[in-house]
Amino acid sequence: MKTAAVIAELNPLHTGHEYLLEQLRESGAERVVLIMSGNFVQRGDYAVFDKFDRAAAAVECGADLVVELPLPWAMAGAQTFAKGGAALARALGGIDTLAFGCECGDAEALTQVAQALAQPAFSEAVKIELNGGVSFAAARQNACEKLLGKSYAALLSSPNNALAVEYIAALQGSGIEPFAVKRVGAGHDSAELTEGEPLSGSLLREKLRRGEDVSAFVPHTLLSCPHTEANRLDTAVLAKLRAMKQKEFSCAPDLSEGLENRVFAASRQAGSLEELFALSKTKRYPLARIRRIVWSLFLGVTAQDAQLEPPYLRVLAANETGKTLLTGCTLPVLARAAQTAQLDERGRHIFELECAADDVFGLCFAEPRAAGRYFPTKL
Questions:
Q1: Where in the chain are the domains?
Q2: Cα(59)–Cα(309) distance, integer angstroms
Q3: Torsional sign, CA 356, 357, 363, 367
Q4: What is the model's pLDDT at position 79?
Q5: In whole angstroms, how large is the CA radius of gyration of the chain?
Q6: Which listed CATH number (3.40.50.620, 2.40.380.10, 3.30.43.10, 3.30.420.10) goes with 1-104+164-232+308-379?
Q7: Which residues of the chain have pLDDT under 50?
Q8: Within a 10 A sphere around the Cβ of 122, how many other Cβ atoms?
Q9: Would you call 266 helix, strand, or coil by DSSP?
């Protein structure tokens, strides 16, 4: 391992992420790249801190380069999220390792699962399970059990293991090796308070927005930055969806079996976002998927936007070592406003989509920010 990449949201950056960076350095990584979600994230929400603040804090905590996973991939299901991040890692050229935190800490076992998922027999088994009315996650786990047995299938029941499997699948043929680090502290979305160990990101976000002390878990440089408030855009989202025609709902990502009609009907009835999510959710369609669909509709993200790989590499923060990693990148590198001139039509579309989302994100703070903050003031 010489140059390792990590795909992460850092929402917020906390001691669990710092532990992962430490493990990489101790294992021989000379350079570390973070491929980070922007101001809107995979769970279908806006981030608790601005992406430039999170990226700058990450460099202070041990990363050398932080680049952005663009909106259509950052706010997508696990497979698309992983493919977008892996594509940026490949584009940088010098990455030899992709590291991730996961519940099992066993890259070999996760690789076996990823290889099984690529078999035609697995796809057929998933179809059979889905016809039985279960969710995609349950269908995939049941299909995996038929191919590999219960112990391997059980790995897919843990969210970070499941995401790691998608990372490994997306790396096939790239020459980039997976590196698993066993997670420490609270589990994904856990409300547990474990003294001296990392808390879950969801609990940290709640505590931050309630004004509680999280200085033992979040870097002080990040705590000095303003954070967003919950539910700042609820009325705006509902207003946008109510103003849309029913046929426009079919353009959203991750739709199937008429789900767009369910979301449309819910948008005409709900008086809050939480009510909209509750009315749209079913056993088959998990809450995170519904949330992503709703926010995609609001932000104008369509199913076509993430069909191909990200069209550029946007730099959020870097130290001198990180800047050297940009040499030889196979994608247009965006670190200054003038560099956007090199983008083709698709690249401009994705970048403009991201900029519009950033402008909306500025309204999520107690003191709203002006639009137009598209590049860091200094790299």
A1: 1-104+164-232+308-379, 106-157, 234-299
A2: 26
A3: negative
A4: 94
A5: 20
A6: 3.40.50.620
A7: none
A8: 19
A9: helix
